[in-house]
Amino acid sequence: MSKLNECVQRIEEIKVAFHEDTANASLNSRAVEELKVKYLGRKGLVTALMETLKEVSKEDKPAAGKIINELRKGIEEKLETLRAAAEEGALDESLAAQRLDVTLPVAAMQSKGSLHPVTLMRRIILDAFRSLGFTVYDGPEIDLDFYNFGALNFKDDHPARDMQDTFFIGDRSKTILRTHTSNIQIHAMMHERPPLRVVAPGRTYRCDSDITHTPMFHQVEGFIVDENIDMGDMKGVIDQLLKAVFGQDLSTRLRPSFFPFVEPGAEFDLQCVSCRGKGCRICKNTGWLELGGLGMIHPNVFEAVGYDSEIYTGFAFGFGLDRIAMLRYGLSDLRQLFEGNQQFLGQFPTHP
Ligand code: FA5
Q: What is the Cα–Cα distance from 119 to 351, expressed in whole angstroms?
């Protein structure tokens, strides 16, 4: 047999073998790669055929070379088709494995978190004031002595100006952390003309710490300036507010007290939410809980902001937001509000 015929016979054998090897339509990528090595690799069957070409006579070489190349090309094309099919099959398989059944019941919802009790309280209170026609105002926590004390009729030697009570910043005589939200009265009145109906929540700071006092705490200030405002209006607003917070008719009372920026001044108490006035540990057996201060705005304050006290009157009040949260949610220690304990904070709802 001539070398050319031997070569053609070998090609037929390789074709049959390749046909058998690829008869299984569902070859995976790895099997296709193995076939590539077996037929076209450096020591592969087709590559070995090229070696036999050397022994074919010179005149038969072109014909033998042509059929070997056709064989190689045919195998390459078939393997490429199989490789593409294998990849597609793998993709389908992996998509099938990842299929989501959207009809399955959902897993239990993750916790949505909760609002801080002071935030809850602030939202309830501001909503109540908005419904009474008040505008919400903001003011600086770091402020000048003038807004926090001077314009509010504090004398130069007032004890609140002492380092024992107030945090000073830099130059002791001028810049402080505000000790109450009453500074917002001055900012608002210097910006606006009467009539005014303002409520202003914010952080306040004092050198103070025990179970009912913290160095940073929150207050809510409120005031009305207009013609013919009197103490009766003030009592009406306070009663409405407390009803909104505690959701029941608890009695309130005013006790005469002194604040330099109001005259007359008073402190306002709420009938104890726990014992309803009978006397208990929370109210120290008095039946009453102290919430804040209030009074008719002092003429000297009007003078400092340029309002005519012959025409305008007004009242102002300020109370501790944390204290009210403490009473509303029955807390035993004010400091719990600022310790960041997740277990404690997680008990509160996500909205008022
Ligand atoms: C004032 O701060 C006045 N500015 C309130 C006021 C406004 C009076 C307008 C008249 C007119 P007082 O110092 O009493 O007042 O504080 C008011 C409330 O803030 C207190 O009743 C208390 O509830 C709360 N408070 C005071 N100090 C602390 C503290 N260290 N920690 C937590 N709450 C406090």
A: 9
Residue 213 contacts residue 183 (beta carbons within 8 Å): no
Per residue in 95-146, pLDDT (tens digit) is 888 888 888 887 776 677 889 999 999 999 999 999 999 999 999 999 999 9
Maximum distance among all Cα pairs of the chain, rounded to whole angstroms: 133
Of 154, 153, 178, nearest in space to 165 by CA: 178
Both tokens assigned to 283? 């109210």
Give the chain's mean pLDDT.
Answer: 89
The domain locations on the chain are 3-97, 117-345
- Nearest-angstrom CA–CA distance, 29 and 27: 7
CA of 317 to the centre of ligand 1 (A): 10
121 C-alpha to ligand 1 centroid (Å): 16
The 3-state DSSP class for residue 41 equals coil
Atom of ligand 1 nearest to the CA of 180: 2
Q: How far is the CA of 258 from the centre of ligand 1 (A)?
A: 12
Matching CATH number, 117-345, of 3.40.190.10, 3.30.930.10, 3.30.390.10, 3.30.70.1350: 3.30.930.10
User: Closest by alpha carbon to 87, among 35, 175, 28, 47?
Assistant: 28
Phi then psi dihedrals of residue 93, to 5 deg: -60, -45
CB-hemisphere CA count at 13 Å for 167?
14
Residue 75: band (very low, low, confident or very high) from pLDDT cuts 50, 70, 90? very high
Ligand 1 is surrounded, with C-beta below 6 A, by 180, 182, 206, 208, 213-214, 217, 219, 259, 262, 265, 290-295, 316-320, 322-323, 334
The rounded Å distance from CA 228 to ligand 1 centre is 27
Do residues 186 and 305 lie in contact, with contact meaning Cβ atoms separated by under 8 Å?
A: yes
